[in-house]
Design goal:
By secondary structure, the protein is of the alpha+beta class. 25% of the residues lie in helices and 26% in strands. It is elongated, with a radius of gyration of 41 Å.
């Protein structure tokens, strides 16, 4: 909402400069986006001039050389290109040094060889209208000193103004009118507020002869008011009206149309003017549109409607789209003599739906969709009535059509002193609260424990509860004046849940190992599944399509974190990063098995490595690239931190390198994720040469974590290490060998790990030698070599029986 300060000061004139006023409004919740200068600057160079002579330019057919009296006995030569300039005219003149609306500083110049000492101005060159067909001719009587040559032009025309560009929130449609903002300024600054511009009404009640209105959808049109005017003279609006519309962002058209826009900007309530002679049958009907019914709107477009939209029609069919835009058939034009001025109230959600479906947004729809009070319709009609008589010479036809008015009874809300103090952390005197609410248009009455507050119509949809009134008191009283206090609560402490602590521990484990966390979008491109080679597989991997995506590149929900990690890795590698170590924790969105209901949103944790597995050194200038074992090392760091028993089994995923991938299982064999090197085709789709990654279903993984965590005593007894080399078939997994060793080694086996792998003639074809390091320790004594050897022999026997292992010589 653009608020011209000259217009504001007509209703409320605070003794503040624009910047101070903007700051005060900001502090009360009415955000001022920017302060703009409208019109011209260097006002001392804009004067009234009298054209004393006008002769054709000797070297140009369309230019006129004028002698202009600019006061003080001085005559200036000005070359003018307007076709209507003539001797004897009183005109607006800009002298050298004047600053035009676009910021250009005017200088004397030669035009086709004749020196021009200024400009004779058209109205668009003063930003008081859009006319540029000819110069602006000033008319004034002989006794009008302000229009004598040399008089400041500002005394004659509103050529300069300051505009506040205000962001109006959806809950405050009352601030979409100048008077509504004046009320806010009055409350915020204490400056006097003038009476409402609709306080006095020239019109009268009763039926209007020759006009009928019927509302067939009262639930969508709570109120419909109208008045008729005769002997209307269509013409241009006066400069003051044009300037106010232009400063507020509207384009002047004609006096009747300008009156509707002016009244809307003043009251916040849109209006529409019908050419009454073009309303077939003199009857208007508000009804739901028929399916696929069409109407031609004022912009010349034919629009197809549906049964949820409202139209206003006459005896020949729809003549406008209710609350959005008028129709071309009943448009006011140069030949209009009779006008029917309509001001109605419409259902906000319905207008929003109509505007969205049609792709047609107007100043009217932007206001109606926020929910205007039915009482505002009559306010705007009163303002328009006054202007129609004043500016168009119109005669008001007796009577006023009012269907559905005036509106529901106002609500009364109790405001308790104790509740104000309890919610704000400090008391606000009852007298101060009453003063604030009265300044905002609320009615107040004393109660035993506070105030009974009557909510005015323009705040009906916003203020419904006691806390809403407290907010009004607080923002005007000054939120900056409230002390910093802790809210009253039963439990003063708070802590993370067990699941939250574990998730943080998992992220911390990766961060401690040099990984950087990223945050990707939950929405991804539809082709991501194809780039990950996921199409045609598990139907639960089919992405969920968004009905109203923000863009084509964010049209489906992600089913894996891998895509966003690959995108982040590509971004970093393209900017010179050699080694990339990234991780992300977040939700993925999976279809439920039966396809019904809402999708599952499990929390996943994924990490990706690209580039060298470790930094280069002088001993290793070209370290090996990150591989499945590097990714598995990160995985182990996470799961070991969470104390989740885990293992990796050979398995394949479409996006992983064949033979270099596996699935992650926790104790008991439940799959909780995958780990491996990225398939070369997938890596190439993200401009990467090679990468390794893992992804955990964190919810499933944490379900296997011990709760509470248990700790073993630190013992002072030494461990005994025994090495065991066994030869097994090539297809026997090392993890299987370790699992058998751990199960057979008894409680004294503290640790078992593979420290060497050998393939060669001594192992035999199709077989592999695994060297195990076994560490034995007892908590209550020092183990003997004989006891350790016994446990070692038991492990060898179990391996021989279960996987055919043979001791390596």
């Amino acid at each position: 909402m653009r608020l011209p300060l000259a217009w504001l000061h007509e209703h409320c004139a605070p003794d503040l400069d624009p910047a101070a006023l903007a700051e005060r409004l900001d502090l009360t919740g009415t955000k001022v986006e920017r302060i703009e200068r409208h019109g011209v600057d260097a006002l001392e160079h804009f004067v009234v001039g009298l054209v004393t002579a006008a002769e054709a330019h000797p070297d140009a057919d369309r230019l006129t050389v004028c002698r202009v009296d600019v006061g003080g006995g001085e005559e200036a030569t000005i070359v003018c290109g307007a076709p209507n300039v003539a001797a004897g005219q009183t005109v607006a003149v800009a002298r050298p040094g004047a600053v035009m609306p676009d910021g250009t500083k005017l200088r004397a110049a030669k035009l086709r060889g004749v020196r021009s000492e200024g400009m004779i101005l058209a109205e668009d060159e003063l930003a008081i209208g859009t006319g540029h067909d000819g110069i602006l001719v000033l008319h004034g009587g002989d006794g009008d000193d302000a229009r004598h040559p040399g008089a400041p032009l500002l005394d004659v025309l509103p050529i300069a103004d300051t505009v506040l560009d205000i962001e109006v929130t959806p809950n405050r449609p009352d601030c979409l009118g100048v008077y509504g903002l004046a009320r806010e300024v009055h409350a915020a600054t204490g400056a006097p507020l003038g009476p409402p511009p609709w306080a006095e009404d020239r019109g009268s009640a009763g039926p209007v002869a020759g006009v009928e209105v019927r509302v067939e959808a009262p639930e969508l049109c709570p109120r419909f008011t109208a008045r008729a005017f005769e002997a209307v003279e269509i013409g241009p609006s006066p400069p003051w009206l044009k300037q106010r519309l232009t400063a507020a962002g509207q384009r002047p058209i004609s006096n009747v149309v300008d009156i509707t826009n002016y009244a809307m900007l003043l009251t916040g309530q849109p209006l529409h003017a019908f050419d009454l002679d073009r309303v077939a049958g003199g009857r208007l009907v508000v009804r739901r549109a028929a399916e696929r019914e069409e109407v031609e709107t004022l912009d010349g477009q034919r629009r197809r409607l549906d049964g949820e939209m409202l139209v206003i029609d006459d005896a020949e069919g729809p003549t406008s789209i209710a609350g959005v835009m008028g129709g071309a058939r009943s448009e006011v034009g140069e030949g209009t003599n009779r006008v029917l001025m309509e001001v109605a109230s419409w259902d906000g959600p319905n207008i929003h739906r109509t505007s969205t479906r049609l792709g047609l947004r107007s100043e009217a729809s932007a206001r109606f969709e926020k929910g205007l009070a039915p009482e505002q319709a009559m306010e705007a009609l009163v303002v328009a009535t006054e202007l129609m008589a004043e500016l168009c010479g119109a005669r008001i036809v007796p009577g006023t059509i009012d269907v559905g008015g005036p509106g529901p009874a106002p609500a009364v809300v109790r405001l308790r002193d104790a509740r104000v103090a309890g919610l704000l952390g400090a008391p606000v005197p009852r007298e101060r609260g009453g003063e604030i609410l009265t300044s905002l248009g609320f009615g107040i009455a004393e109660a035993d424990d506070g105030l009974d507050v009557t909510v005015p119509p323009h705040r009906r949809n916003d203020v419904r509860r006691e806390v809403d009134l407290i907010e009004e008191v607080a923002r005007i009283h000054g939120l900056d004046r409230l002390p910093a206090t802790l809210p009253t609560r039963r439990s003063g402490g708070g802590r993370l849940s067990v699941a939250q602590r574990r998730r943080r521990a998992a992220s911390d484990a990766l961060a401690a190992r040099g990984c950087f966390e990223v945050a990707g979008w939950s929405f991804v491109a539809p082709d991501e599944a194809a780039r990950l080679r996921l199409q045609g597989g598990d139907p639960r991997r089919d992405p969920i399509v968004i009905e109203n995506p923000m863009s084509e590149e964010q049209a489906v929900m992600r089913t894996t974190l891998l895509g966003s990690l690959l995108g982040a890795a590509r971004h970093n590698r393209a900017r010179g990063a050699e080694a990339v170590s990234l991780f992300e924790a977040g939700a993925v969105y999976l279809r439920v098995p039966d396809g019904d209901g809402l999708p599952r949103e499990p929390q996943h944790l994924a990490a990706l490595l690209a580039g060298p597995a470790r930094p280069p050194t002088w001993r290793e200038p070209e370290p090996p690239p990150a591989d499945v074992f590097a990714a598995k090392g990160l995985l182990g760091g996470v799961l070991d931190t969470l104390r989740v028993p885990w293992a990796v089994e050979a398995a394949q995923q479409p996006f992983l390198h064949p033979g270099r991938a596996g699935r992650i299982v926790r104790g008991g064999g439940e799959a909780i994720g995958w780990v491996g090197e990225i398939h070369p085709e997938v890596a190439a789709a993200w401009d990467l040469e090679a990468a390794a990654a893992f992804e955990l279903d964190l919810d499933a993984a944490l379900a296997g974590a011990p709760e509470p965590a248990t700790y073993a005593d630190v013992t002072s007894f030494p461990e005994i290490r025994q090495d065991l080399a066994v030869v097994v078939a090539e297809d026997v997994a090392a993890e299987r060998v370790l699992a058998i060793a751990r199960a057979t080694g008894g409680p004294e086996l503290e640790r078992a790990e593979v420290f060497d792998v050998y393939r060669g003639p001594q192992a035999g074809e199709g077989r592999v030698s695994l060297a195990l390091r076994l560490a034995f320790r007892a908590a209550d004594r020092t183990l003997t070599d004989a006891e350790a050897a016994e446990r070692r022999a038991a492990i060898l026997a179990a391996l021989s029986a279960e996987v055919g292992a043979e001791p390596r010589a």
